[in-house]
Amino acid sequence: MSTDNIIEIHKLTKVFGGVTAVFELDCTIKRGELLGIIGPNGSGKTTLVNLMTGFVKPTSGKILCNGKNITRMAAHKIIQLGIARTFQMVRPFYQLPAFKNMIIPLYSPRVKQMLGGRYGDRDAVALDLLEEVGFERDAYVAYKPAGALPQGYLKRLELAKAIALQPELIILDELFSGLSLAEVASIVPIIEKLRQKGKTIVMIEHRLKELFRIADRIMVLNFGCKIAQGTAEEVMASEEVKNAYLGSER
Amino acid sequence: MFAGTLVYAIVNSFTLILLAIGFNLTFGISGVANFAYGALYVLSAYLSWMMMNLLGLPFFPSVILSILATTLFGALMYRLVLLRVRGQALSEVIATFGIGLSILELFRYLGFVGFEYTLPVFFDHSFIIAGTYIDMQRISIVVLGFLLVVLLWLFTHHTSTGLAFRGIAQDERTALTFGIDSDWIATLSVSLGAGLAAIAATIIIPLGSISPSEGYDVLIKALAVCIIGGLGSTGGVIAAGFFIGFAERFTDTYFGSHWTMIVSLIAILIVLVIKPSGLFGQQKELEERI
Fold first, then answer.
1. Which of A44, A81, A184, B247 is deepest in the core (most CB within 10 A)?
2. Chain B residues inside the 8 Å CB shell of A73
């Protein structure tokens, strides 16, 4: 097993009833890269994330993380290996202040293991993490109940919860959806900073323009199959990708 | 008469809170509506009775053993049955109700009915508060009910297992991404709920007797308190416990006891008409916000 691949996926298939969501997919995620996964609605992107993080068990195929087989591992164990994810639909503790929302990730088994139970003052750590994702320091916003936060901050909170787990790989499922251009522009530097720290990032995205600016590599899915991969220019030049997005003329 | 009614209304409120808190805990954490709850309450009382009267064990070891046994029973019920129908609310209700029905009707079939089936009071003593006779057992209900609520609050807010409990209560998938094993937490929630039912039985049964029909009664009362309070909300259970507890006793005194049941049912209807998710329930409003 080469050590520069953090994830290796072999012939992964998932069938839901009669629908094949992912079909014989082969792919690798290199350590330290930012991989963008795109594809039309229903092309199997989120299913792929759910498979990688153990939320859905594959029909067949194999997933390796750092050479270790995680194909049928339970979701709560996969996170221990350093794979964190965000959800498309944010689900914070609505009644708690934003920084108090970080208590569960900061008390999680993964963080305890990584930092040996010594994490200092958790409220301070929570505020630091929130600042890292763009909650203004010394502003009231971090103390507001999550239920009163606008969508942009809720997405940042979701990102902060994933970062809090000290993961190696962060999978962002449509982080940009529902955000304005300005909000996306302010989150992009946060993602770039994570990469500088050596984190591997996978982004599922429909906002192609913004994604292409930061991604090293793009993988395109359609009907559960990989139809193209490479740099943004390469995949957009592909006939198959054009057909998938625009429909083919036959 | 007013002062006496007030004292007994407080006792009644804490009785209801004790009855409902276990059901509420289980539902609040794992979303399992444990319809075997009343049966577990009765089961633990019969277990204590059998250990004391058939095996001749002293009171305290008997009740502690039966509380532990009921807790274990709850865990087994989850691992062996509920795990298989997890997430299907209707199947969970049917499965737990079936288990409860079997337990209660088994005891009825075996002939465990009569006034001799009861548990002893903790301290046989009574005194006068505000011109009203009140016995130590009723005082114990108030004190222990209060203590249990405080302990539960400390547990869910200040221990990491408690935090994990609240995490899964919020969102099971998010809990999984934080490395929390949701099946294990759900097992704990059902088993702790069962244990709380057993504790409630130990404290409340001495005032009456153990009978299979008590199981159905307890289930209905627990459901009423939880629905009025807002399913899964601890603050709601306390508020609803006092609401129904006071309504019942004051109806008894000023209108007659044949109105008691009607008043609490009307109270449920009024609350549900005005606030469909219960006094403190926020589920519905939050869903609407998204």
1. A44
2. none
Q: Which residues of B touch A (CB under 8 A)?
A: 160, 163-164, 166-167, 170-171, 173-182, 282, 286, 289-290
> Cβ distance B203 to B140 under 8 Å?
yes
Structural domains of chain B in order of their starting residue, each with its CATH number: 2-289 (1.10.3470)
Count chain A–chain B contacts defined by CB atoms under 8 A: 64
CA quadruple A155, A46, B29, B218: dihedral sign: positive
Q: pLDDT > 70: what percent of chain A? A: 96
- A5 backbone dihedrals φ, ψ, rounded to 5°: -100, 125
Q: Does A91 touch chain B (CB under 8 A)?
A: yes
Q: Which domains does chain A have, with CATH numbers?
A: 33-47+75-246 (3.40.50.300)
Average pLDDT across chain A, whole number? 86
Check if the beta carbon of residue B177 is closer than 8 Å to that of residue A108: no
Contacts of A91 in chain B (CB under 8 A): 170-171, 173-174
Q: What percent of chain A has pLDDT over 90?
A: 21
Structure tokens at B31: 């979303």
More confident residue, A116 or B84: B84
Write the DSSP string, B222-272: HHHHHHHH-TT-HHHHHHHHHHHHHHHHHHHHHT-GGGHHHHHHHHHHHHH
